[in-house]
User: Fold this.
Amino acid sequence: MPDTLEAQDVSHAVSLDPSNIYWSEWPDAQTIADAVREWGIAVFPGFLQGELLDALNEEFDELIAQQREGEGHFPGDAYGNIVNVRIRRGVIPDDMIPATRTLFSSQELQSVSTAYFYGNDYCLIGIFL
Assistant:
């Protein structure tokens, strides 16, 4: 998989209709991956809360700043107000982004990443500002 992908207009294929993108329960990993491929997003209200959410926000802010300044440690790209950072599980230094490591080390998100990336070792972080 290349580090940077060419931007494509997929506005016809993306849905913000709550019935398509909001989930009240966590389905199996393949269902989530398929939904993201079809609609461009999957939303799980309340999935992240409290201190973990605060720590993730801080880490993501730093990752975004690094990416925009051209100093990012990981490949990524930006489309308007969306910044994607591609991080390979297993190559994140121990002292870097600990909350993100914890989140993406969970069995649930490892399964979704594997399903979405067809077994490649990425965990895509999409951030909407």
The radius of gyration is 15 Å. The longest strand covers residues 82-88. The chain has five helices and three strands. Strands lie at 76-79, 82-88, 122-128.
